[in-house]
């Protein structure tokens, strides 16, 4: 239970106690009549509810977990889910690059997986069992037992560094996926095993390595020392599901022109692109200066976007809100958004893109910030990032991928980014071969 919710429950409990006729706080007849007593109780309960809400606002992590229907326009009485399904059915996908680039991908945040716990995760077109052994280490295996196909993550039990199948009790080692025990068999066959995925836990996230040819990891994910040492603490996360090819999302870093058009309106304008340019909100404007460049060897798998952000209110430039951000992309699925501000402090947003299916991406933003900065600051930054990001979601969910887009000279960074991103594809990288008859959710 969160502290804010706990405070709310206390408020309601106290309020209930105050209005009981035999409450010792009131005596036999009470200092005031029943109507006055009830009013005091209601005010006390509301006050404590407000205190709980305020505590949650100021000190608890902000968690915004969005559904599959963000970024669609619902008209003619339809729900957004119906509108989303209609768009997904009729949208042309275009000629797509391979759907699963080689690289590291986030599966879970570390705090979501406790010792002895297992979770089922869908990623890269696979069903995975992610569990934390009693040794504290996180393991990733294919979810389906090779015996009779039971899902190890649904009812499976963690025993030491192994997971036990809920169907017949077969136990599989987290290290290599080999079956180490069959409770009713005298001997375990040598070939009895489930696929074990290379994984790591860094920056308080559990990551998995994917390579279409089964090659071992070709680089490591950089460790953010401030997170490891506890100098930067977790202040919240957002999560979105986007109906697009994975390459569309990081390509935004090189699409410099879209910032001035899509992201200039202030965050008070909201996320619905039909209204973000309303004259009502013209008093607040964002200004962006951006440069994107790939890095050289030995960090060829990395790139950097340098962002200078400024804010204009009623035509006046507010220098206090100028922010410099270094966005460093590591592989196809992870970006470190590093903030450094003289007054607002330092921190990072870990932006992670994980393919769930060929045209369905799970995107998370987890923010870690200086522990001595009021939590309201990073939570505001995360909320502002969420608003700007959902404007992009509305574009991605409705657009078509163009292999040969019509570009002008000023768009040259987009082609440069595509050449850089192509290193994460191999000859055998999986392609989208067909679409299901129904994509409803």
From TrEMBL:
GO molecular function, one term: 2 iron, 2 sulfur cluster binding
Cofactor: Fe cation
Transmembrane parts of this sequence: 37-58
Predominant subcellular localization, coarse grouping: membrane
UniProt catalytic activity: cholesterol + NADPH + O2 + H(+) = 7-dehydrocholesterol + NADP(+) + 2 H2O; cholesterol + NADH + O2 + H(+) = 7-dehydrocholesterol + NAD(+) + 2 H2O
Subcellular localization(s) per the UniProt record: Membrane
Pfam families, A to Z: KshA_C, Rieske
EC numbers: 1.14.19.21
Pathway membership: Hormone biosynthesis; Steroid hormone biosynthesis; dafachronic acid biosynthesis
Keyword tags: 2Fe-2S, Iron, Iron-sulfur, Membrane, Metal-binding, Oxidoreductase, Transmembrane, Transmembrane helix
GO terms (BP aspect): cholesterol metabolic process
Keyword Iron attached: yes
Residue stretches making up the Rieske domain: 104-208
One GO CC annotation: cytoplasm
InterPro entries: Cholesterol_7-desaturase (IPR050584), KshA-like_C (IPR045605), Rieske_2Fe-2S (IPR017941), Rieske_2Fe-2S_sf (IPR036922)
Family statement: Belongs to the cholesterol 7-desaturase family.
Protein name (database record): cholesterol 7-desaturase
Naturally occurring in which organism (per UniProt): Echeneis naucrates
Name of the gene encoding the protein in the UniProt record: zgc:92275
């Amino acid at each position: 239970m969160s502290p804010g919710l706990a405070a709310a429950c206390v408020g309601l409990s106290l309020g209930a106690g105050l209005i009981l006729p035999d409450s010792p706080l009131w005596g036999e007849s009470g200092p005031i009549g029943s109507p006055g007593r009830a009013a005091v109780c209601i005010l006390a309960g509301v006050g404590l509810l407000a205190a709980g809400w305020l505590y949650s606002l100021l000190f608890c992590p902000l968690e915004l977990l969005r559904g599959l229907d963000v970024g669609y326009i619902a008209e003619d009485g339809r729900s957004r889910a119906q509108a989303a399904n209609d768009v997904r059915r009729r949208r042309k996908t275009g000629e797509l690059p391979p759907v699963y680039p080689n690289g590291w991908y986030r599966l879970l945040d570390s705090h979501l997986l406790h010792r002895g716990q297992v979770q089922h995760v869908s990623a890269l077109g696979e069903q995975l069992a992610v569990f934390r052994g009693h040794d504290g280490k996180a393991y990733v295996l294919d979810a389906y037992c090779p015996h009779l196909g039971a899902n190890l993550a649904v009812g499976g039990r963690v025993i030491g560094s192994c997971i036990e199948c809920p169907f017949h009790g077969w136990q599989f080692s987290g290290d290599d996926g080999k079956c180490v025990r069959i409770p009713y068999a005298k001997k375990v066959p040598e070939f009895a095993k489930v696929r074990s995925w290379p994984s790591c836990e860094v920056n308080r996230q559990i990551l998995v390595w994917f390579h279409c040819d089964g090659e071992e990891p070709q680089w490591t994910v950089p460790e953010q020392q401030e997170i490891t040492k506890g100098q930067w603490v977790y202040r919240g996360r957002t999560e979105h599901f986007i109906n697009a090819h994975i390459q569309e999302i990081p390509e935004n870093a090189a699409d410099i022109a879209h910032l001035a058009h899509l992201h200039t309106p202030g965050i008070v304008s909201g996320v619905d692109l039909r209204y973000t340019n309303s004259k009502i909100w013209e008093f607040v404007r964002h200004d962006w200066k951006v440069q994107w460049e790939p890095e050289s060897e030995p960090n060829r798998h990395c790139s950097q976007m340098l962002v200078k952000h400024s804010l204009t209110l009623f035509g006046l430039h507010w220098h206090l809100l100028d922010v410099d951000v270094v966005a460093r992309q590591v592989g196809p699925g992870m970006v470190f958004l590093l903030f450094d501000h003289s007054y607002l402090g330092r921190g990072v947003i870990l932006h992670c893109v994980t393919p769930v299916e060929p045209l369905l991406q799970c995107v998370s933003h987890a923010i870690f910030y200086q522990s001595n900065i009021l939590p309201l600051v990073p939570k505001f930054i995360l909320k502002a990032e969420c608003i700007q990001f959902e404007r992009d979601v509305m574009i991605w969910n409705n657009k078509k991928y163009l292999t040969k887009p019509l570009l002008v000279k000023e768009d040259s960074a987009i082609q440069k980014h595509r050449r850089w991103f192509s290193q994460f594809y191999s000859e055998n990288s999986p392609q989208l071969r067909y679409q299901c008859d129904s994509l409803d959710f």
